[in-house]
Structure formats: C-alpha cells, structure tokens
Amino acid sequence: MSSTTVDAPPTTPRNTRGRVILASLIGTSIEFYDFYVYATAAVLVFPTLFFANSDPTISLLSSFAVFGVAFVARPVGSIVFGHFGDRIGRKRTLVASLLTMGIATVLIGALPTGQTPGWEILAPGFLVLFRFCQGLGLGGEWSGAALLATENAPKGRRAIYGTFPQLGAPIGFIIANVVFLILSTTLSTEAFLAWGWRVPFLASAVLVIIGLYVRFKLVETPAFTRVVEKGEVAKLPLARVFKTSWRPLILGTFIMLATYVLFYLMTTFTLTFGTTASSVENAQAAADAAGKPFDASSFVPGLGYSRNDFLIMLVVGCVFFGIFTLVSGPLAERFGRRMTLIWTTIGIAAFGLLFVPLFAGGFVGVMTLLIVGFTLMGLTFGPMGSQLPELFPANVRYTGSAISYNVASILGAAVAPFIAVALWQAADGSPALVGNYLSLMALITLGALIISRETRDVEFDTRLT
C-alpha cells in the first residue's frame, strides 16, 4: 500500500447489488465480531487472566483501559487507511484493513496470559499492542465499507444501501456473544479460563479468509473512478479535508457522539452491571467459591444475573438492533437523514432518564431497557452509513468520514465504560448518573444535528473539492 499510483478506471461492469451488499456486510460483520469478542472478554475473563489484582474493581478498570486503547488507535487508522482509500481506491484499502484487524485478533487468541511464568508484564503489554492493531484496522474498515455501499447505490437509495455495512455491528455482536455463550455453557469454568476463551479469537481466521475472498472480487466504486478520470485524486487527503471540509469534520464527530455512548453503555456497561452480585453476601460467597480474595469495602452492587443469562438477554436485545437498523434506511430516505436522527436523538435523551425505573423493574424492566436501547441504537446507527459520507466530497470522502466516525469513538465509546463504572460507584450502585450521562451526550448530538443541513439530495459521485 506504499504505492502512490492509482488504479486505472475499471473496464469491468459495476459491482452487482448482491456483491455490494455481501462485501460491505461481511467485512463489517467480521470486523465488529473481532472487536466485540474483546469487549466481551474484557468483562468476563481478562480481568482475571491479564490483570489479576486483589481488588476486582481495579482489575476490571484495567481491562477497560486496554479496551479503550483501540479507540485511541481508530483515528490513527482513519488517517492511514483514509489516505490510501482516497489515493489508491476503496477496494485495496478495505482488504488491508480487514487483514490488520484479523491478524491482531488471532494473535490475541494465541497470547500467553499474565498468569504464565515470565509473562506477568509481557502479556498485558502485548495485549495492549494487539488491541491497538485491532483499533487501527477498524479505523479504516467502517468508512471503506460505507463508501462501498453508498457509492454503488442507485439514486434515491443511498440511505438504504448505507444500512448494510451498519448491519454488521449487530450481526458481529450476536455471533461473538453466541460463541462465548456456547463455550461457557459447554465447558467447565476451569476449561473456559484455561483455553475456551481463545476459541472466538482464533476462529476469526476463518471469517477473515471468507471476507477476503468476497472483497477480492470487487471492482472499484464509480465515484472513485470518476475522481481518477478527472485527475482530482488528492495528494494529501488529510491536509485537503482539514482545509476544505473542517466544518463537516466537526459536525460529523458530534453527530456520532450519542450513538457511540449509547452502544457501549448498552453492551459493556450493562453486562458489567447486570452480572455483578446484588449484595455483599452474594459477592463474598462467589469469591469464596472461586477461591479469590474479596474486599467488601470496595464492593458496589449490581443486578446479580448469571453471566450466561445476561448474555442471552443481550443477544435478544441486539436482534432489535439489527431489525431497526434496516428500518432506519427507508425512514432516512423518506424523511431525510437529519430529521430521522433528530427525533431518534430526542428519544435517546429521554431514554437516559429511564435507567433507574427500568433497571429496578426486575427481569421485565431490564429486558425492556435492553430492547428499547437497542431499538434506538438501530435507528441512530443505520442512517450514519449515508449521513457521514454525504458530508464530504468524493476525493476526500474516505478520510473525512473515517476521521469523524473514529474521533467520535474516543469522545463517546473509549471513555464510556470507564465513566459509567465511576458514576455507578459514585452513586453507590445506582445507575442514575449513568443514565444522566447518556442524556447529556444526546443533547450535545442534538445540537450538532440542529445546526447541520440535510444531505439526502447532495451531489455524490461528481462532487469534488
């Protein structure tokens, strides 16, 4: 990818609809599967395997800190892969991002743990490195997949096509958690901690091979082909996008903010809160059964669900994420991206105020919270596949949309689990402040949407800086 040459205009026909849908969907499904495999392990096994500490809260926060490393890497990936995506094309860049993510995930699965003699320091260090590489790959993956879909979409259907790469998020999440669920129910706790947790990471190799096969069959998108034909390929896409599109960069970042906060609260925080013991007595009994030390002074109560039960609940909720991701496409075509997102963001702000009554409502209340939260997630995440690319001209579109998407990941997702745990502790086990945090982030996003413009009818293939 070091070459600065560009692909010649393709002589083959356009990508077929089925090929576009499959290539954009399978790539993001694999990428998000890889990413969520770590997110699940960060809660379930990594605090014990890589960050053993007498204080379980410190171990959990250490694991979340490494979880956040990938979000720091994502803007770097957006710059690196965005450069090549705008210089040599979408197809080859998407292949490289998939390889980066996939190889890093497999290596995590083969990594000795911090309990291995001689690896007490090396293991967490390599975990940080591989986690960084995961974020690097995902930083370039999403934008390329979104452009692959939208730049091949028929007129008036960009938002619908843009939902297909977005659908990879719930699919990847469901697959990752189902795999963990199967392993944790079929293996003993000892076997799961000894080797079972590695299987989802190592299995990523098979998925990557399938994804590469599909993507190698693609031809370049019509929009990038026209950029090449007109001699408008940006020599330095990063400099050009900051010079000509700085306002869309800022707006796009804050438009994505609430989406990121919502998703990582609905997955990572709820899993932590839901599976934490509901009383000191239960926590002490669980620690005694596992032969682990327990510090009652630092204990913060949760809901007390078993790990497997709550994973099933999350998977059920995530089905609604997938359904409403698809529903959001026709809504964004009919009512516009901006108006669809404004009403959804108002819903997210209101939803944050319902954390306390829903979490306190027993199984029905918690299940309602998961279904409503993931429904809102689908409605806000789906239109982003067209909203962010439409903010930028074709010759800096990969870089611009990738930077906005991934800088938002730092402001929203990277710190969300950490802030949520801190707020949960500060409120002595109540999720009230966590819900308020979500509502505040939604109001910031709402402000960005109000001052932005509708992008449904903007020129797409021919618009250049």
TrEMBL record:
Signal peptide stretch: none
CDD domains: MFS_ShiA_like
Keyword Transmembrane part of the UniProt annotation: yes
Main location group: membrane
Superkingdom as given in the UniProt entry: Bacteria
UniProt domain Major facilitator superfamily (MFS) profile: residue ranges: 20-456
Family matches, as InterPro entries: MFS, MFS_dom, MFS_trans_sf, Sugar_transporter_CS
Membrane topology (UniProt): Multi-pass membrane protein
Transmembrane segments: 58-81, 93-114, 126-148, 160-183, 195-216, 249-266, 310-329, 341-360, 366-384, 405-427, 433-451
Location(s), subcellular: Cell membrane
Task performed by this protein: May be a proton symporter involved in the uptake of osmolytes such as proline and glycine betaine.
Protein name: Putative proline/betaine transporter
